[in-house]
């Protein structure tokens, strides 16, 4: 159902092709036909129409619950050979599952060559809020049928024990992602883990200060995007500067997710940057630079996306202009030696963010000698 | 150096207090004084002024490189008893380190009680781009001195072997986060991992389609924030609706990071939502609801942050008005049974995002019977 999308971006969550989840809407898909048929066959047993998704009457997880027997029936009819082309990876979590997804995506970065060059697709399936044993076993049985492997992050020790036993019994290769980390921390701190999932009654559920600060940072960052409100630059934790298409906006929102207020100021040739930029502490300002040919290629792609005509395109991605703009930015950087300048050429957003945050935290921590990002919980 | 910030948000990256990284700027801090002193003492040996951070002449990682001996000197003088109050956790990576950070933060969610109630701080230190053995050993030695534990994600097998050996020798508790996952995938796929870090010469470095789609999604989402450009709603993958302070904006940017175009439309009492909202496929629209008292509390916090006066605050967070606004939203939801309605009360951004994405992908995949998010690599 998902289309091929090149290789995964290591250390990041590879975005799905935005159009892919909607494939079932394309009435021509043969896969859809099979799916629809299966759905029609099962329709007497299970109501899976949209309105049943409503979580109004429920508390946490989506309310689409059907009995295990019904699901088992659906399952059998739902599996066909086409769907298991390539290898499948199952990720199970009693929470959101983002930890499993993040770790597995990072690990998949080690297999770029077979994934890209051999046309050997890997299908990942993320199951969230697997909170009871029945559901757990059902998913593992399905994994066995598909010859998938299983990664799991389960807070409840009895659930993770069950997962391991079921996988071993059914010959499903499995890895407990969170278990060893939790055990390590428990030994180190000398306290036992709670064993509670986030939704559990015993877990703290109040939104804390950190939550509000993070939301504030995101809102600040969005309002401040693209040089708006230069009078607020002083309130930003981090200020990104650079010419168009150096990735200031996506980088800003990524860093904001981590709780930092980020502003960005575009450098447009011939336009003086706002005076306030030169009044903030230089250590907060990060200049983005990029290789000429790469920037030109990115701009050409951008112009195509926007459907700009050739004249407009040349104005934006012409070699000469791009070079002049980069020179313009370089000169400003040279005049501000206190700013860190980061080369973003071919860097993933996560990588540039890591460089910036390390520099930002650098010197703020006396307990370690090598540059690092330190936090206290 | 970091201040206490309640308990970590499980399954999410707990944002540092935005003010904390700047603590060294507070000239009154006794810690700063120690740090400054240490810095002054070391100043003959190592130049750590800002301009050395520049990466202009370099390629990937920040250029703040000093020799190991110099660092060892700095290290010795830099460690003092105060800095190791509480327990330390080291995270080492030959990449960004976000995988280690994400996993460790999720695991720390299992220790909320001791962290919150016992005033027992845990300090995490994230070391990125640990690319040579010397640096690796230096950090582990430092961990041993601080009685820290080590988590590592190292793509190069010889590096991760060295890490394990050094930790064992020095009595440092250590956990290899990525190793077991990579090994599992290697067995499953029947191919060997590349062993290459992202920065390595053999790794693919071109920005792929997925990268551009993700950037496009983020830019779309920001432009579309807060109901702007209702004529573009049809182009969104996901549309969030709800009254003020239900978290539409932070949720939008989080989902956009995963490559989906998200629009959000605020419901303001007495104002008709844009007509285009009712023209898009209902399955793309997600209504956010929240408990009355919780919303009221959030709004009160918000009004304080904004410095709104009492009259303004009452208008925004008054019990009666908040109730009426929620009723107004409920009525619109009732009229649109095809929309999924999500209760966001006390949910972390990551949790609501997981609910939405699971519903969004639901039914788009015939290979599994339990709702899940599937992707193909």
TrEMBL record, chains A, B:
InterPro entries from the xrefs? Kinase-pyrophosphorylase, PPDK_reg
At the top level, the lineage of the source is Eukaryota
Where in the sequence does UniProt note compositional bias of the Polar residues kind?
Answer: 58-69
- Region annotation Disordered: where it falls in the sequence: 1-80
Q: Does the keyword Metal-binding apply?
A: no
GO MF terms on file? ATP binding; protein serine/threonine kinase activity
Key words of the record:
Kinase, Nucleotide-binding, Pyruvate, Serine/threonine-protein kinase, Transferase
- Sequence ranges of Basic and acidic residues compositional bias: 47-57
Q: Name one Pfam family in it.
A: Kinase-PPPase
Mind telling me which PANTHER family this protein's record contains?
Answer: PYRUVATE, PHOSPHATE DIKINASE REGULATORY PROTEIN (PTHR31756:SF7), PYRUVATE, PHOSPHATE DIKINASE REGULATORY PROTEIN 1, CHLOROPLASTIC (PTHR31756)
**What is the name of the protein in this document?**
Pyruvate, phosphate dikinase regulatory protein 2
